[in-house]
Amino acid sequence: MPTQGIPRGGHVRLGRLEADLTAGPDAVIDAEAGGLIEVTGTIRLKGGATFQGSLSCGELRAAKGTVRVAGDLVSRGPVRVERGVLEVGGRFEAADVDVGRALRVAGPIRCARLEVGGELEGRASVDATSIVAGGRIAIAGAVSAREVEVGGEAELGRLAIGSLSAGGRATVEGGEVSGPIEIGGTFETRGALRYGRLEVGGVVRLGPGCTGGEIEVGGRLTATGDLRADALEIGGLGEVAGSFAGDRVEVGGQLSVGGTLATTGAVEVGGRLRVGGALSAGSIEVGGEIRAREARIAGAVEVGGRLETEGGLRAERIELGRRAEARGPIHADQVLLRSRSRAETVSGRRVELEDRAEARSIVAEEVRLGEKARAGEVKYVRSIEIGRGAVVGAPAVQIPAMPPVPE
Amino acid sequence: MDPSRPAAAPLRRGRREATELYATILEVVKRHQASARITRISYGAGMPVDRLKVAVDRLVALGLLGRQEDDGVVRYEVTARGQSFLDTYWKMRGFIELFSAPPLP
């Protein structure tokens, strides 16, 4: 194929060129009437160049400098700007795209693999097989790709992608990431997001209505609305303004849920668990404090510090730790109040108070009071065992059967 | 103007601590999947090549980056030890965030 050359700093006018085009640095190419520069072959640029119109070509290769296309850029083949910047004023369509420093596009981008060493800025949508940038990605419109990877920061519009990985921070409008989201520092979504798995080293801020698989956060998670996740693992603090539903929860520090908290499996919280609504779970283990309107637990409950439920706690097994305190009625098949712990109304098949533990009222089939334990009143069906120095305020009463437990 | 100096510094926000700088470099290299060249890393990390080379050499010496030369072209990749550093770095940043955040109500 013949080649047309433009010297360094040359200024030419082009319409349709059935040839390759080679240009020296700082060339300016004006479009003929119609505003389209059409090069059927390959464009090779030794430095920066400016195309004053839309550009259509077979392939575009530039060594360095800034390549500016005032209108659309459509390349049937790849576009490669080795150590420079590419700026497109309109839409951008190509096969593979590889730009060294920065790619800035005003219109929509459509290509196969899109790779930028430094910064990718798209003011409209991007539809690509994969999007990779070393430094930063900012795409205002919708993003469709199998994978999006960025070394530093990503700010993205609505997503329909397979996976998202960012070293530092990612902010998205919402949408769907069918596979994993892996972020080193901070992840934020403004709207609802469906995700496969979310793994973030530092901080997560989720908009209302996010749903997906496992969430693993090193530092802090905040959700402004409801949240659904198969599993929620937070190293530090979690705050869900709405309700949370999932399979299991594991929080190192504190978890606060404004609405209901419902899991099929275990809830484990190292510090405080606060639930504005009802709490239901497979089992619960809390090192510090539980506060909920009411709690219905299928399995065991272990509380190290304080338990406060206005509507009561029902479980298969309840264990209050040493010196722990329960406010509100508690009922379980087995209730164990460890040494020096205190409860109000306690009922169940078997209730045991260890030494110096206290309960205001006990109703159970079997009751055991340890040494110096104290109970205000006791009703029992089958047996009662009172340890040395234990005190029952009123005489213990044997009843024929357990009264029904209020729902 | 020094041609090796990047025009934009997308990740720079004031002075970076050494560990943050190393983490930034490793994250950028990771995105290029074993084919990161020094200029590409400089664009991503927002650092001039001369300063970047010092940091990259240190990361290579510490075993956090691997260096391969093919037909005179040097490429870098994150080693397992480098990935381990990144995992630890982000985990530590998570803890730091906890200490600086106000407690929950």
How would you describe what is shown here?
The complex is a heterodimer of chains A (407) and B (105). Chain A has 407 residues and is mainly β. Chain A has a domain at 1-111. Chain A contains no helices and 46 strands. Chain A has a 46-stranded parallel β-sheet that branches. The model of chain A has no long low-confidence stretch (mean pLDDT 96). With 105 residues, chain B is mainly alpha-helical. Chain B has a single domain (18-100), classed as Winged helix-like DNA-binding domain superfamily/Winged helix DNA-binding domain (Arc Repressor Mutant, subunit A). Chain B has helices spanning 18-31, 38-45, 49-61, 80-100, and strands at residues 65-70, 73-78. A two-stranded antiparallel ribbon of chain B has the order 1-2. In chain B, helix 1 packs across helix 2 (38-45) and helix 1 crosses helix 4 (80-100). The N and C termini of chain B lie far apart (54 Å). Chain A binds chain B through residues 64, 83, 85, 100-102, 117-119, 132-136, 149-153, 165, 167-168, 184-185, 201-203, 217-220, 235-237, 239, 253-254, 256, 272, 274, and chain B through 3, 6-8, 10-11, 23-24, 26-32, 36, 39-41, 43-46, 86-87, 89-91, 93-98, 101, 103-105.
Ordered list of secondary-structure elements with their pairings:
The complex is a heterodimer of chains A (407) and B (105).
Chain A: E1 3-6, E2 11-14, E3 16-17, E4 20-23, E5 27-31, E6 36-45, E7 49-52, E8 54-69, E9 73-75, E10 79-88, E11 92-93, E12 97-99, E13 102-105, E14 109-110, E15 113-116, E16 119-122, E17 126-127, E18 130-133, E19 136-139, E20 143-150, E21 153-166, E22 169-183, E23 186-189, E24 193-200, E25 203-206, E26 210-217, E27 220-223, E28 227-234, E29 237-240, E30 244-251, E31 254-257, E32 261-263, E33 266-269, E34 272-281, E35 283-286, E36 289-297, E37 300-303, E38 306-309, E39 313-320, E40 325-327, E41 330-337, E42 342-353, E43 358-369, E44 374-386, E45 391-392, E46 397-398
Parallel strand pairs in A: 1-4, 2-5, 3-6, 4-6, 5-7, 6-8, 7-8, 8-9, 8-10, 9-11, 10-12, 10-13, 11-14, 12-15, 13-16, 14-17, 15-18, 16-19, 17-20, 18-20, 19-21, 20-21, 21-22, 22-23, 22-24, 23-25, 24-26, 25-27, 26-28, 27-29, 28-30, 29-31, 30-32, 30-33, 31-34, 32-34, 33-35, 34-36, 35-37, 36-38, ...
Chain B: H1 18-31, H2 38-45, H3 49-61, E1 65-70, E2 73-78, H4 80-100
Antiparallel strand pairs in B: 1-2
Helix pairs in contact in B: 1-2, 1-4
